[in-house]
């Protein structure tokens, strides 16, 4: 395999996707170093991890973060850095001067920022000739007032956000009294699209898709991140992803929230320029890594069973099932799905969920925020300063 035995740095070690990437690259013969801010991330306990490094929180110590990453790269002989979460923005900023001694598997900060902004992304898709939902940028209370009487057919959300945080779905007009957009913290108002939501995860090189998984989330942590994933196939969704990847010459990981209307038309809603849970549908290390780093053909997902994190299902899925009367469906889902943290000969990360959860819970308690907000508080990127 081209470039075997390279030293790879994977950041965002708190995330199951970082653990999964570590296992894939380790399984393909590479040395994997992991890094993140927490003391006890799940991926650090994996047999795929040669060494774990703690980093300063990039959101609050950007320069220290960049300097520590550079020192780590030099000390460990890193050839390639692969971000997994929103630290990708801070890494892209650190790489902007071109002096870093390794490559980063991500586009430049300007493109990352454009697709992360929920209004700019829709305008980009529109320029690429894609059909898009009506989407307006809100920079002031005057902008809110101009569309207040249409609130029941719109979705309101911050332009820079994640996990559906602060989303108002077809709200009554009075709910907009508490929305205070500004040029520094803009919102968007997007026409509500009825249909079936599709999530897309892609990995690409120079505008070519090297791997793509389409899936839907049947259970979520509240209204945000999915915790139970089922694969789907959709030609229109694939074409949409292909056109955006090609039109931006994308290199790195990229993910989309799409909506398939009853007619079969697929519209883009928003973009996340990072790894998401569709990655878990790839489990063949050699084929995946050869597609990403070598000259191998596009790799197709090789997992068909639904994937889940069982601990999250007990915490979020079971209460939701009890509230909705869907206990039988919950039992069926738990029976038919695979634990996405499971991996042959590498059981420690499953047990490591508990100390990792305790650390996040400590942040949530100290900051008086939700567990979900605490899980990304130190790496969130909410637009240029």
What can you see in these coordinates?
Helix 3 links the parallel strand 4 and strand 5. The chain is α/β, with parallel strands linked by helices and 385 residues long. The mean pLDDT is 93. It folds into three domains: 1-106 and 347-385, Rossmann fold, CATH 3.40.50; 134-191; 196-344, D-amino Acid Aminotransferase, Chain A, domain 1 (2-Layer Sandwich). Helix 9 (310-324) runs antiparallel to helix 10. The protein has twelve helices and 16 strands. The strands form three sheets. Strands 14-13-10-11-12-15-16 form a seven-stranded mixed β-sheet. It has a five-stranded parallel β-sheet with strand order 3-2-1-4-5, with helices on both faces.
Strand order of the largest sheet: 14-13-10-11-12-15-16
**Strand content of the residues, in percent?**
15-25%
Structural class: alpha/beta
Number of strands: 16
Number of domains: 3
Describe the structure in brief.
The protein has helices at residues 16-27, 62-76, 87-95, 109-116, 118-127, 141-147, 235-248, 285-293, 310-324, 327-336, 348-367, 371-374; strands at 7-11, 31-36, 51-54, 80-82, 103-104, 135-138, 154-158, 168-169, 187-191, 196-205, 208-220, 226-231, 252-260, 266-272, 307-308, 338-339. With 385 residues, the chain is α/β, with parallel strands linked by helices.
């Amino acid at each position: 395999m081209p470039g075997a035995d390279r030293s790879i740095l994977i950041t965002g070690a708190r995330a199951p996707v970082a653990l999964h990437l570590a296992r894939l690259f380790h399984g393909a013969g590479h040395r994997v170093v992991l890094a993140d801010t927490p003391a006890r991330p799940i991926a650090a306990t994996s047999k795929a991890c040669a060494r774990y490094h703690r980093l300063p929180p990039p959101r609050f110590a950007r320069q220290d973060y960049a300097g520590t990453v550079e020192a780590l790269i030099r000390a460990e002989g890193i050839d390639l850095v692969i971000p997994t979460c929103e630290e990708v923005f801070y890494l892209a900023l650190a790489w902007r001067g071109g002096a870093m001694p390794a490559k980063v598997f991500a586009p430049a900060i300007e493109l990352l920022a454009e697709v992360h902004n929920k209004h700019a992304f829709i305008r980009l898709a529109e320029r690429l000739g894609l059909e898009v939902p009506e989407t307006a940028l809100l920079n002031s209370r005057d902008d809110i007032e101009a569309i207040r009487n249409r609130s029941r057919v719109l979705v309101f959300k911050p332009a820079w956000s994640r996990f559906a945080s602060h989303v108002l779905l077809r709200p009554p007009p009075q709910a907009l009294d508490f929305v205070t957009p500004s040029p520094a913290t803009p919102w968007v108002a997007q026409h509500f699209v009825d249909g079936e939501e599709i999530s897309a995860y892609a990995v690409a090189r120079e505008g070519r898709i090297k791997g793509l998984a389409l899936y839907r989330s049947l259970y979520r942590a509240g209204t945000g991140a999915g915790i139970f994933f089922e694969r789907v196939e959709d030609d229109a969704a694939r074409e949409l992803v292909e056109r955006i990847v090609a039109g931006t010459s994308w290199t790195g990981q990229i993910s989309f929230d799409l909506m398939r209307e009853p007619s079969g038309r697929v519209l883009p809603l928003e973009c996340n320029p990072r790894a998401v849970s569709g990655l878990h549908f790839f489990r063949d290390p050699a084929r995946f890594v050869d597609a990403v780093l070598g000259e191998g053909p596009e790799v197709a997902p090789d997992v068909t069973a639904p994937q889940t994190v069982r601990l999250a299902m007990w915490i979020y899925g079971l209460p939701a099932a009890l509230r909705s009367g869907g206990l039988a469906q919950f039992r069926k889902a738990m029976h038919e799905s695979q634990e996405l943290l499971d991996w042959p000969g590498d059981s420690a990360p499953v047990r490591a969920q508990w100390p990792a959860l305790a650390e996040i819970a400590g942040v949530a308690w100290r900051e008086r925020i939700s567990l979900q907000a605490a899980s990304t508080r130190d790496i969130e990127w909410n637009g240029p300063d």
